[in-house]
Amino acid sequence: GLPPRVTIYEVGPRDGLQNESAVVPVEVKAEFIDRLADAGLTTLEATSFVHPKWVPQLADAADLLDRLDRRAGVDYPVLVPNERGLDRALQSGVEHVAIFASATETFAGKNLNRTLDEQFAMFEPVVTRALAEGLRVRGYVSMAFGDPWEGPVDPEQVAGVGRRLVEMGCWQLSLGDTIGTGTAGHVDAVVDACVAGGVPVAALAVHFHDTYGQALANTLAALRRGVTTVDASAGGLGGCPYAESATGNLATEDLVWMLDGLGVEHGADLHKLVDTSVWMAAQLGRPSPSRVVRALAG
Ligand code: HMG
Ligand code: MG
């Protein structure tokens, strides 16, 4: 069966914009986020408090959060890799942060400048302090399916990294197919390994990149396994600057089209999303890669 309702965890402002070569003005980012809230999305990953030299596109994180008209009932999580990031996020008054672990040794080095084990030492004080401050902490596992340097990733390895994040205190675990190579059977295997490893399915989210056109099929597989939180990016923006072959995330509009067809509730207004993505594409100077945006925008 399928869940009656899914939570869309929108990552466009963060995962989408972190990979744009164009510098997007902070007021455009703020308007993007406002429009996504107007379209009914209630979880909007706003930005990252990472090192500004590592991701210059999001160097305006504090300014952006100052400008946001943060609404009751809307959650604005931000990425933080370390205590310095947490300090900055706390100064901006955030209520929800996300740490991002790698399932592989190579990507831990490329994305975090740490070994696989060192990344946990970096995250541990972040989670402890964030929880003490009353924040919620999401944990990502990147390269949860394939890694451009190491190839396919063992589901047991992913489950092990995920379990450590949950034991640390993450309330939710997002399984990231950073480079989009995963397929539906692989999704079953990774979800099953996590659940067998002690992570409840209710704590799982899925985060697919559509590089190989598998994101919707993979999402359906995850829904059939009982996953009820799906990460998506308006207009299919996105990628990861430290994983060469990563392209856009699953487009929120493509997800909504599928959920509507399946009769699964989500709370978003498809036409407002499409209008927003068409507007954002004009800001970026290139068309949205989302099939649904292209179909509906005519
Ligand atoms: P490092 O160079 O090892 O940092 O980078 P460090 O701890 O050695 O510190 C060096 C200097 O940087 C220090 O300054 C720190 O204060 C400063 P100094 O004392 O020399 O003057 N610094 C900071 N400044 C501002 N904000 C900070 C910060 N941290 C240190 N947060 C670090 C380590 C983790 C910081 C770096 O590797 C980094 O920022 N990485 C982030 C990379 C990133 O954002 N990648 C994209 C997100 S992950 C993703 O997209 C995947 C995902 O979507 C899921 C999926 O698709 O699978 C989530
Ligand atoms: Mg991503």
How many helix segments?
12
Strand order of the largest sheet: 1-10-9-8-5-4-3-2
Report the end-to-end length measured between terminal Cα atoms: 34 Å
Bound molecules: 3-hydroxy-3-methylglutaryl-coenzyme A, magnesium ion
Quick synopsis:
The protein has 298 residues and is of the alpha/beta class. It has helices at residues 12-16, 26-38, 61-67, 83-91, 105-112, 116-132, 155-168, 184-196, 215-224, 252-262, 270-284, 291-297, and strands at residues 7-10, 47-48, 78-79, 96-102, 136-142, 146-147, 151-152, 172-177, 204-208, 229-232.
What does this structure look like?
The chain is an alpha/beta fold. The chain contains twelve helices and ten strands. The strands form two sheets. The protein has an eight-stranded parallel sheet. Strands 6-7 form a two-stranded antiparallel ribbon. Strand 8, helix 8 and strand 9 form a beta-alpha-beta unit. Helix 2 (26-38) packs antiparallel against helix 11 (270-284). It is globular and about 50 Å long. The relative contact order is 0.15. The model has no long low-confidence stretch (mean pLDDT 96). This is Hydroxymethylglutaryl-CoA lyase. Belongs to the HMG-CoA lyase family. It comes from Pseudonocardia dioxanivorans (strain ATCC 55486 / DSM 44775 / JCM 13855 / CB1190). Keywords: Lyase, Metal-binding.
